[in-house]
Write a structure and sequence with these properties.
Ribosomal Protein S5, domain 2; Helicase, Ruva Protein, domain 3; alpha/beta; elongated; seven-stranded mixed sheet; 11 strands; 11 helices; single chain; two-stranded parallel ribbon
Length: 292
């Protein structure tokens, strides 16, 4: 291994999967189910529905299975004598596969205290990642849950230390750190999470908790943070922006040092996106914390 160059491939993006489905998976499944040449069409909106709400994977294997399931049900109707044409869209996918298997949490969100919208890169691509925190009377203990790796746990400690050392700047009573226990949680507890890019998200969540200011729910963020509040660059920008766009979030905060990476992205990824660049966590808090 030490004599080889390791080439890593990222997961397919949504539009990659759509193109693969249109040019390969759909024709293959039509032929496999005896529907080739019949009036059966699957629209782009149906593929988007399948990818977003019925499968979660890096590749397209399960997507192919879902397409095959739809076509087999159509083939059964055709074998029973049906001669009608079939047009599969986002609106009628549920008629073949049932209700959505996954939901978009952002649709049910609103500005709240102690909840921040972050962006993460996983084996399935980019994902929206919510960070929640509550406090209760105690002695300053910090509990962290959500199947987190060591790097994310360290990011949480950095966030707490930063706010303690800058309590005057943010009008936080220093006694609050000793008189309350904090519980930080990342939902989707069965999904492993790690990496330093949640540093900004964690700090924003805790700043909201201690200042009792709500956080804008329609702004997503990503970035590593130092103990002095500097925001450092991170990876997976392309996947994270696509995740935000897919979730209906068009305002994203990114590290200033990642600005050069944006110039390499395709225009359709950036279309409609409002990107803000920060190099200090103070700038992040100014943009996302709502006045009391």
């Amino acid at each position: 291994r030490d004599r080889m160059e390791v080439i890593e491939y990222s997961s397919y993006l949504e539009y990659d999967k759509i193109e693969i489905a249109k040019h390969y998976l759909i024709p293959k499944e039509l032929d496999a189910n005896g529907l080739k040449g019949l009036k059966v069409k699957m629209q782009k909106s149906a593929l988007e529905e399948l990818i977003r709400y019925y499968v979660r994977e890096a590749g397209v294997r399960n997507l192919q299975r879902k397409i095959g399931s739809i076509f087999r049900k159509i083939a059964k109707e055709v074998a029973s004598g049906s001669t009608k044409s079939y047009n599969i869209t986002a609106d009628n996918v549920k008629d073949y596969l049932g209700q959505r298997k996954m939901i978009s949490e952002i649709a049910n969100r609103k500005p709240e205290i102690g909840i921040t919208t972050g962006l993460a890169w996983t084996q399935y691509g980019g994902e929206i990642m919510f960070c929640e925190a509550i406090r209760m009377p105690g002695k300053g203990a910090v509990v962290i849950t959500g199947l987190l790796g060591e790097v994310m746990k360290e990011s949480a400690k950095i966030a707490v230390s930063y706010l303690k050392s800058n309590h005057t700047k943010y009008n936080i009573d220093p006694k609050d750190f000793e008189s309350y226990d904090i519980h930080i949680h990342f939902p989707s507890g069965a999904v492993p999470k790690d990496g330093p890019s949640a540093g900004v998200t964690l700090t924003t969540t805790l700043a909201s908790l201690f200042t009792q200011q709500q956080v804008k729910h329609n702004v997503a963020m990503t970035g590593e943070m130092t103990l002095l509040g500097k925001v450092l660059p991170i990876g997976g920008i392309k996947e994270k922006l696509l995740a935000a766009k897919r979730a209906g979030i068009f305002s994203v905060l990114l590290p200033l040092e990642n600005k050069e990476d944006i110039s390499e992205l395709e225009a359709d990824i950036l279309d409609g996106m409002e990107l803000s660049y920060v190099d200090e966590v103070t700038q992040v808090l100014e943009k996302v914390l709502l006045p009391e």
